[in-house]
Fold these 2 entries.
Entry 1:
Amino acid sequence: MNSEQQYLDLFTANRELIDRNSAVAMNALREQAFADFARLGFPTRKVERYKYTDVAEAFAPDYGVNLKRVEFAVNPYEAFRCDVPNLSTSLYFMLNDAFWEKALPSAALPPGVVVCSLRRAAQEFPEKVEACYGRLARTGKDALNALNTMLAQDGLFVYVPRGVAVERTIQVVNLLRSDVGLMVNRRVLVVLEEGAQARLLFCDHAMDDRDFLTTQIVEVFAGENSHLELYELEETHVKNRRFSNMYVDQQRDSVVSLYNFTLHNGLTRNRTDVTLSGEGAETNLYGGVIADKEQHVDNNTLIDHRVGRCTSRQLYKYVMDDRSTGAFAGRVLVRHGAQQTVSEERNANLCATPEARMYSQPMLEIYADDVKCSHGSTVGQMDEQALFYMRQRGISLDEARMLLKFAFAGEVIDAISLEALRDRLRHLVEKRFRGELSRCSGCRMCK
Amino acid sequence: MLEIRDLHASINGKEILKGIDLTVKPGEIHALMGQNGAGKSTLSNVLVGNPAYEVTRGSVTFNGKDLLALKPEERAHEGLFLSFQQPVEIPGVSMVNFMRAAVNAKRKYQGLEPMGAGDFLKMMREKRKIVELDSKLANRSVNEGFSGGEKKRNEIFQMAMLEPKLSILDETDSGLDVDALRIVAEGFNKLRTPETSALVITHYQRLLDYLRPDVVHVLMAGRIVKTGGPELATEIEQRGFDWIKAETEAV
Ligand SMILES: Nc1ncnc2c1ncn2[C@@H]1O[C@H](COP(=O)(O)OP(=O)(O)OP(=O)(O)O)[C@@H](O)[C@H]1O
Ligand SMILES: [Mg+2]
């Protein structure tokens, strides 16, 4: 049996159960998603955007899926303490794919701002959800979009109305929790209306030492002149496989900065597609990857400059150790007529061992003549002279290597605008390099 | 303090040092002179354990220990310091973090607790004064964007921080302007104690005027071919090396 079949069978056999425990807006797209997934199948490595990750292999095992939506007896507010000192956030939890709504943070959000389960949102504001859900993450071309849309039952909804600025960071901790291997399909919708401002922090943790497979689709709508900072921090374990597809649509003069840090993981594949639909929009993508053992991290980006006067910036840095593999493929597309585009793309990688592998593929496609674009990538080894210089001063080889790795990763950490988070990440990264972060430090439960 | 016996070393299979014998006693300053390519930097690199070089014969003892058996960092902890001919730039590693790591590594080796942040910064400030190192430089990445002279000054600052027993200065004078040379040399003299020694590699008399070496050696094609008092440096300054070469060949 091929990898796809078990998912097709699962859907066919449980169609009603899935629908019953989900929402109309989500159910509406399932049939098409099923047809698309059946037609596409998992992408092979011949598919350009999946060159570096073996998808079918990751999906081959038979994971459990919690279609009945059995609740776990966990209160994450008690079980979890994400200590980002000096950063007070409005803290929410997603337990697998379910928004934890039995207890909510005490600090109220500004009027009109919504942070809730997608299912609830689809019931309470159906027109808002229907207008957005699945509009960016189309199922016709990407099998993972199709699979997720076919199976996803719930997720997160974040909505900031026109002109409202949310001062406090909205933090959402994605907890993976299960006593057996589990597949989780999560959907996230983020809608910022005209002039809205928000900062989101998504942290991925795994509470149990189980095999997890997560598919996640994030759709972000950034209205005119809106400002969004979205941080994603993965700190799971080697048995976790994460497939995340993020789609961002930016209207005129909006500014969206996406930060993605893979601190600890098993297999991670992040696809990020940004469409610059309105003039004057600005997008910044920062990625930091730390991998060792046999970890695999693949970041695949597309920035589509549809109109003129937009700016895009990408900086991805990887520190690869042991036998880890990393991939970065970033395509910048400057369409016909997208004049005065400014685009900068850089991928720099440090391979600390000869066995570590890095595939780097920045791509620039330009169909306009008045543009300022640059792209480049480097793969380097540890600087032997610098190592020796430090050792001559009495610094041990391990410590010297740590300092060089930390220095290398530092550039992308420094790009974080939120100071408390920047400090915290420095601390976590240092711990990670010292080997003190082999599981996840955020939750007390799994220590 | 330092005893080098019949030391042979090569790089990439090419023999550079061809039998060096040299003894440095506590408190002594030895100058090492010689033409470009003679092997002076090779000797200093071999002494501090640069893995690029291979020792093929001979022995080195440092305060009674078999130096060649120690890792580079252990040699440093034992009190060996090299002021590099070409100090290395380390982008992204701040001088403060670099020095903190170095000082605390040594303290750990000595069985001491890491230094408190306040004490450490105070120490940085005090030692900086000795070589008049600009505070701006101390806040940057290690040697990154430093001028040639600033790098050399920074080497002696690090020496001040680490208080070595034996310092090897490999052309620390090159790249320093006249005033900077005086400041660095005087700084070096302030750091001297009756127990500390130095091996000073230089092409010029000027640094030696400040440091007043006890012994001067001439290295030629991987061997020490002449040893004398301070007057030997003066003679080399005036006459060059040809006469020594002629003498050696005559033997
Ligand atoms: N990696 C290498 N491979 C081969 N030969 C080398 C290598 N590094 C140095 N050498 C050679 O070793 C010899 C000694 O070099 P060394 O740097 O010790 O000279 P030096 O006495 O310090 O000269 P200078 O006064 O110019 O600093 C030179 O002939 C040099 O070319
Ligand atoms: Mg030299």
Note: Confidence is low (pLDDT under 50) at residues 442-447 of chain A.
Entry 2:
Amino acid sequence: MEHTQGKLWEVFIQSKNNLPYKHAGSIHATDKEMAIQNARDLYTRRGEGRGIWVVPSDCIVASNPEDEESLFDPGVDKIYRHPTFYHMPDGAENI
Amino acid sequence: MNMNEEELLRNFEEKIDVDQKIEPRDWMPEAYRKHLIRQISQHAHSEVIGMQPEGNWINRAPSLRAKMVLLAKIQDEAGHGLYLYSAAETLGISREEMLDQLHTLKAKYSNIFNYPTLTWADIGAVGWLVDGAAIVNQVSLQRTSYGPYSRGMIRICKEESFHQRQGYEIMAQMAQGTPEQKEMAQDALNRFWWPSMMMFGPHDSNSPNTGNALRWRIKRESNDTLRQRFIDKTVQQANVIGLTIPDPDLKWNEERGHYDFGEINWEEFYAVINGNGPCNKERIDHHKKAHEEGRWVREAALAYAEKQKQETLV
Ligand SMILES: [Fe+2]
Ligand SMILES: [Fe+2]
């Protein structure tokens, strides 16, 4: 089938100054400028954003669901990476 | 089915059972993927075709306020269509294929949009009843098991809340207007009530796809449950503005804690689904024409993108 709809882009919106950009969804566009405009029209009609990133979907590298364990399990059992792991002497303040 | 696939299926169903969302890259049964593609693309087509009966009144809106509101509402519906097309695309169908299925009548859209909007009061009835029925369905679908569909529904529900209110406001204004205006409002309710009831689809006892859809939590509630919720909500709203729901069998049932209602004309439902509604042909013809007339824009945009690519290579 003939491809007439432009390529797919992922849209990330920053809702307020100083907040991280969050994935909002995707759009079709044939170039960067159109991608920004389409993202603006589709995802910020009610002042949801003050910043937009658009990224061609095929430029995104994603982890595989099958690799979930090998990628993320090593980070689960290292409780000493959290401040609550440590015993503080009674009476110590501001620590 | 080999061992491996059995295991995959078990993992998949375990996830569903604990309400974990299924994401595009996760393994899923072919039947799940197919059901979702069909449901989401039909949902997308409904949003887009639904712009036509309302667009019919933009140029004739009775005030600038009404016109701005209607334009904003219709623009939202275009957005809903796009969110949903994107969600369907994550399942491996292209936008072009979906449009093609719509144009060749392989894909359906909601029956309700095959009815005409004859008067301004119809715009009120559409917002109040059609968006009202859609909201009941969509609120339930926020909990669907497929992640991208669920996220689309959450965004859509946020935007829908004004749609129903603007429609009900129109109905309330007309019901309090001159006797002719009130009559117009009642007439719109008379014509849109039953088709709105049909929006929830056949009775559960008659709904072949419901089993799998409920088991895999694509749908969270049955057609009859959703329809009953819509009726129970809407009767009081009609009473408040002094309009009468055109169903002589409508009666509060103390024991059930729900309204009883009359028999739906399923013959009409199937006639419209099979292409014999008042506007089926007009809706698809219009969509095809708009798509054809936009061809040069798409071609120009693609040519421009190609040219830019050449320039960066030089
Ligand atoms: Fe919508
Ligand atoms: Fe709506």
Note: The beta strands of chain B are 251-253, 258-260.
